[in-house]
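#onboarding

Welcome to the new folks! Below is a worked example of what a typical request in this channel looks like: someone posts a single protein sequence, and someone else replies with the predicted structure as tokens. Don't worry about understanding the tokens yet, we'll cover that in week two.

Example request:
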Amino acid sequence: MTNASTEHDPLPLIQAHRGASKDCPENSLAAFREAARQGARWIEFDVRLSADEIPVTCHDASLERTGNNPVIIREHPATAIVGQDIGHVFDHSFRNEPLPSLQETIRLFAELGLQGNIEIKSISSPAEEELSAIAVCECIRTHWPDDKPLPLISSFHWGCLKKISDIMPELRLGYLVEELPDDWKEKAAAINSYAIHPWHEPLTADQVRSIREEGYKVAVYTVNDTARAHALLDMGVDSIITDVPAVMLESLSSRT
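Example response:
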């Protein structure tokens, strides 16, 4: 597959954060399957590069937290990382749940009819930003189904998003921020961003209004309290990223 569809799905009310990550090991195929079973159609998940610049589906720089394994992902080839057990620390019933590559994640999403919000994780330098952007774009170009709407790409690393906007402008971008910086308008415009993804706690209604007035969608992370989710939607937020998709879908069903 070489020419992915340039069509886009609208931003959803709910995105499952790292899959159904309260019920399954985060960023695992099991978590993605469970999120789909619970009714989520969009999954937010993380990728970072191995030593041989293969994108793998993992949040942390190492597998210490999720796999009780000190291995540093960027220091080893994908063949030594993909398939590592990321399940047993979560619960013994998930023992031998394998860490997936981005390619494997895309394959599962195609099978289940899922859409993706791919967050590109920690990058130590501008060179790393460029390498990450190139590797993720190449994986999408090669493996994303031609007949499916393209995923959204998000990152805290503006330079990485800028590189993606240059080499694959058909991808929608989500500019991730903890708090809305003073220069967010300039940065969002420079990458032709589709959405701003702020942390929900410091976010104000005035900030949401300002973002939407500039023509951007608003997706907030990580919201597990239903009352807070309703309040955010009342403020004008478009999409809630949550660890508990089933709970959120049930509570917010009246808004769909």
